[in-house]
Write a structure and sequence with these properties.
alpha+beta; Alpha-Beta Plaits; eight-stranded antiparallel barrel; 6 helices; 29% strand; globular
Length: 227
């Protein structure tokens, strides 16, 4: 058996050209779990997200929209500052300039989220949205210094590509006021439990958690699947 050396370091991931799209990230608190990290089935959440999926389908038909996807949370780790979103929608537009036209539609306004963030793609690893299937992570980062937070995120990407198997990730940076310096949209290489087990590796604590803590960067993940 190979024992992992927690002192190992990992080079930064290789970044590809950021997407030129505009992004609207929407968070919804419908029926989130109170204590457990695991999101149980909810009749109310099911009906609400099915309606949101229908509205997203309407948005998909707009010339300004590249994709509109609704997600249901499956795991919400009980970390400090978690947004507790058990429903999420991500709308990708042809450009940032196309966002206002989408926001002006009745379908968008009827989505009625608890949180909305307009963003651009700041960094990218692989291609998150093709195909739009599987398990996804939305990781919400907070920090007093956005530039320092970005350097920290870049520094830890190598652990996620080498030790967690992440090949597809899009870092979304808000273009307006937001409590988050960015939200990382990731397609996971496997299911939520197997992915979470990777965080038990000693190198996660010594390499990732230590760097986040030293640079005063908080993160609150939500793992979900498309509706």
């Amino acid at each position: 058996m190979t024992v992992e050396d927690p002192s190992l370091t990992y080079p930064r991931a290789t970044f590809t050209q950021p997407m030129p799209y505009g992004y609207i990230y929407l968070g919804m608190r419908i029926d989130p779990p109170r204590h457990s990290p695991f999101v149980r089935k909810s009749t109310r959440r099911h009906h609400v997200l099915q309606e949101r999926k229908r509205l997203a389908h309407e948005l998909d038909g707009l010339a300004e929209v590249v994709a509109a996807t609704v997600y249901e949370a499956v795991v919400i780790p009980p970390v400090k500052g978690s947004p507790r979103f058990d429903g999420i929608a991500l709308i990708e537009t042809t450009s940032p300039e196309a966002i206002p036209a989408v926001q002006a539609t009745q379908a968008y306004q009827r989505l009625d989220p608890d949180f909305a963030m307009v963003a651009r793609n700041l960094r990218r690893i692989g291609d998150v949205d093709h195909p739009r299937t599987g398990t996804f992570l939305f990781n919400h980062f907070t920090a007093a210094d956005p530039e320092r937070a970005l350097r920290t995120w870049e520094d830890i990407t190598g652990w996620f590509t080498h030790q967690a198997g992440v090949a597809d990730s899009a870092l979304l940076q808000p273009t307006g006021a937001s409590p988050y310096v960015f939200v990382n949209h990731v397609r996971l290489p496997d299911g939520p439990i197997r992915f979470l087990l990777r965080f038990a590796k000693p190198s996660f604590r010594s390499f990732v958690a230590t760097r986040l803590r030293a640079n005063q960067v908080g993160n609150a993940p939500v793992i979900c699947k498309p509706v």
